[in-house]
């Protein structure tokens, strides 16, 4: 009876660990980017959707494999675009410990195999007169 409970507990624990991705739990999953400009009040766009006005901290979507273009526009000034780049999350390597590589699939599906490159977390735009 005790052996059955022990085996059940081990199996359940293994399943719980296997159903979670390492980067999804322990990775740097913040999607916040601070956007500022020399002309405050400029509109911030990501994928043609307005995210607010400068200065602001915006939260990007999870699925940003390959980077995301952030455009700033203000009437009377030229628009400017910068790319928020991503980098591989090294903690994802721990997914080799999960059975059947489930952790890799979870991290890839949630967008947590990559994180926002720290160099891309602060975007400062210098808008010039159009």
Could you explain the architecture of this structure?
- It is a single chain.
- This protein is an alpha+beta fold and 130 residues long.
- The protein has one domain.
- Helix content is 24%, strand content 31%.
- The chain is built from three helices and nine strands; from the N terminus they run H-H-E-E-E-E-E-E-E-H-E-E.
- The strands form three sheets. It has a four-stranded antiparallel beta sheet with strand order 3-2-5-6, with no helix packed on it.
- It is rod-shaped.
- It starts with a helix and ends in a 5-residue tail after the last strand.
- The mean pLDDT is 81.
Name some characteristics of this structure.
single chain, 130 residues, alpha+beta
Distance between the termini: 79 Å
Number of domains: 1
Number of DSSP helical runs: 3
Number of strands: 9
- DSSP strand content: 25-35%
Give a quick account of the main beta sheet: strands, pairing sense, barrel closure. 4 strands, antiparallel
Order of secondary-structure elements: HHEEEEEEEHEE
Radius of gyration: 21 Å
Q: Spatial order of the strands in the main sheet? A: 3-2-5-6
Unreliable spans are none
| Average pLDDT reading | 81
Structural class by SSE content? alpha+beta
Shape: rod-shaped
Provide the helix percentage: 10-25%
């Amino acid at each position: 009876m005790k052996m059955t409970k022990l085996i059940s507990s081990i199996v359940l624990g293994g399943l719980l660990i296997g159903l979670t991705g390492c980067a999804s739990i322990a990775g740097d999953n913040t999607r916040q980017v601070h956007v500022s400009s020399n002309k405050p009040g400029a509109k911030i766009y990501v994928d043609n959707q307005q995210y607010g006005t400068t200065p602001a901290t915006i939260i990007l979507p999870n699925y940003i494999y390959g980077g995301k273009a952030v455009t700033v526009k203000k009437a009377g000034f030229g628009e400017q675009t910068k790319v928020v780049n991503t980098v591989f999350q090294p903690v994802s390597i721990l997914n080799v410990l999960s059975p059947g590589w489930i952790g890799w699939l979870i991290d890839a599906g949630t967008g947590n195999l990559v994180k926002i490159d720290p160099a891309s977390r602060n975007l400062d735009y210098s808008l010039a007169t159009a």
